[in-house]
Amino acid sequence: MTKSPYPTTPCVAVCQIDPKSGFCLGCYRTLKEIAQWGKFSEEERQALLPELDARREEDVRDWEAKKARQEQAPDGTD
């Protein structure tokens, strides 16, 4: 397998920053990480990817917990 000529990127073209967390809702990078991404070495990018996955997983868990609470609430409020 040959190495891609393109840098690794977690971008999925859903560029919206969550004001609560400060993370992009598409890639889970901070604005600072997005701005510096092009300056990172490939090793630095690869080192950050597991952190982005962890942020995404935490966000999904929070969303699922909120949804479960809403389903249990008799009036649908949280």
Structure write-up:
With 78 residues, this protein is mainly alpha-helical. It has one domain (14-78). 47% of the residues lie in helices and 0% in strands. The chain has two helices and no strands. It has helices spanning 31-36, 42-72. It starts with 30 loop residues before the first helix and ends in a 6-residue tail after the last helix. 6% of the residues are buried. The model has no long low-confidence stretch (mean pLDDT 90).
Q: What's the structural blueprint in terms of helices and strands?
A:
Layout: H1 31-36, H2 42-72
Q: Which whole number gives the mean pLDDT?
A: 90
Major beta-sheet overview: none
Helix content: 40-55%
Ends distance: 50 Å
How many strand segments? 0
Molecular shape: elongated
Strand content: under 5%
Global structural class: mainly alpha
Number of helices: 2
Using only C-alpha atoms, the radius of gyration works out to 16 Å
Order of helices and strands: HH
Please indicate the count of domains.
1
The low-confidence parts are none
Notable features of this structure?
78 residues, mainly alpha
Short description:
It contains two helices and no strands. It has 78 residues and is mainly α. It has one domain.
